[in-house]
């Protein structure tokens, strides 16, 4: 902390989308609706997975963790963005900025690892169906979930610690929340060595999981091709394709943002790209993972019927 510019006690001004005032109202409406859908969809999944015994499976155990992650992740950034868009307050304290950076990095990194775990679960279900219950036993599920959270926490501690060791100058952040690439733009000293360490940490948490996910879906695709039923193939490919779209949106936008050199990073483009992994992907996850699932529809209908009877 001793190396930080003392003028930072005043905090930062989040520029947000103020360079496009004509878009602010439209963005406010879109983000408000998306955030509401995110809260409703993910809360519903968590509630259903707890209340219905048919959903007490490894898939929905991990999906409930993903839903909780998405709820926390969007809440760490979206309320600040909505206040920013309304022009009520565009400032954030230094402590608030560090906290937001740490939390968003921890949750985003945890999601990177958890998506790999979920891909492994699908691989085991499709490619090893007879051994699935033996492989994905309760203890392993809990270990994998804890490992995901710990992996995200460790990655965030490393990167936030490296960031706080830099001396930064300036008060204007050209973004809607405190994000690493934008903070690096404020560095007023040679950050080559620190950036190299950060790049390695980001590559490990982004590229390695993405490769594992793609590899698992290659094996899943091969297994699906062996299915004789055309309807079964179409359903499996439709589900896997939907999952891959969401994974591609999340990893593609995150890799674009975090694996660019500081000098080539465009702050204006970065703001719009960040909308994908902070707002759009958390909103789509509940729909993509449950839209065609009969068990989820049955559990929701059962819950609604119970509510009517109690009413």
Strand content range: under 5%
What share of the residues lie within helices?
over 70%
Give the count of helical stretches.
Answer: 11
| Element-by-element helix/strand order | EHHHEHHHEHHHHH
Taking strands numbered 1, 2, ... along the chain, how are they ordered across the largest sheet?
2-1-3
What radius of gyration results from the CA coordinates?
21 Å
Total strand segments: 3
The separation of the N and C termini measures 56 Å
Q: Report the mean per-residue pLDDT as an integer.
A: 84
- Quaternary: single chain
Overall body shape: globular
Sheet of most strands:
3 strands, mixed
Furnish the topology, listing elements before pairings.
Blueprint: E1 12-14, H1 21-51, H2 58-75, H3 78-85, E2 91-92, H4 94-127, H5 132-135, H6 138-164, E3 172-173, H7 180-185, H8 192-225, H9 230-258, H10 267-290, H11 294-310
Parallel strand pairs: 1-3
Antiparallel strand pairs: 1-2
Helix pairs in contact: 1-2, 1-10, 1-11, 2-4, 2-10, 4-6, 4-8, 6-8, 8-9, 9-10
Structural notes for this entry:
This protein has helices at 21-51, 58-75, 78-85, 94-127, 132-135, 138-164, 180-185, 192-225, 230-258, 267-290, 294-310; strands spanning 12-14, 91-92, 172-173. The protein is mostly helical and 311 residues long. The longest helix is centred in the middle third of the chain and has 34 residues, at 94-127. The N and C termini lie far apart (56 Å).
């Amino acid at each position: 902390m001793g190396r930080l510019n003392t003028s930072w006690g005043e905090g930062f001004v989040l520029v947000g989308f103020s360079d496009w005032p004509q878009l602010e109202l439209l963005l406010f409406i879109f983000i408000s609706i998306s955030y509401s859908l995110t809260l409703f969809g993910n809360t519903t999944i968590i509630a259903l997975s707890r209340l219905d015994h048919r959903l007490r499976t490894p898939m929905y155990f991990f999906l409930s963790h993903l839903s909780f992650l998405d709820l926390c992740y969007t809440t760490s950034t979206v309320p600040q963005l909505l206040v920013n868009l309304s022009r009520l307050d565009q400032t954030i304290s230094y402590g608030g900025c560090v906290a937001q950076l740490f939390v968003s990095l921890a949750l985003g990194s945890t999601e990177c690892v958890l998506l790999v775990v979920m891909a492994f679960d699908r691989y085991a279900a499709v490619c090893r169906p007879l051994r699935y219950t033996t492989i994905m036993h309760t203890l392993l599920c809990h270990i994998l979930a804890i490992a995901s959270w710990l992996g995200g926490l460790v990655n965030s501690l490393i990167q936030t610690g490296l960031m706080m060791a830099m001396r930064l100058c300036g008060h204007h952040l050209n973004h809607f929340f405190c994000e690493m690439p934008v903070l690096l733009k404020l560095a007023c000293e040679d950050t080559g060595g620190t950036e190299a360490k950060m790049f390695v940490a980001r590559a490990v948490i982004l590229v390695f999981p993405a490769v594992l996910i793609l590899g698992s879906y290659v094996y899943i695709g091969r297994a699906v091709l062996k299915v004789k039923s055309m309807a079964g193939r179409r359903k499996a490919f439709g589900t896997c394709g939907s999952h891959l779209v969401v994974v591609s949106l999340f990893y593609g936008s995150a890799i674009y943002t975090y694996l660019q050199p500081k000098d080539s990073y465009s702050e204006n483009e970065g703001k719009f790209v960040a909308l994908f992994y902070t707002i759009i992907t958390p909103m789509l996850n509940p729909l993509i993972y449950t839209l065609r699932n009969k068990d989820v529809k049955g559990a929701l209908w059962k819950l609604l019927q119970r509510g009517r009877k109690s009413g």
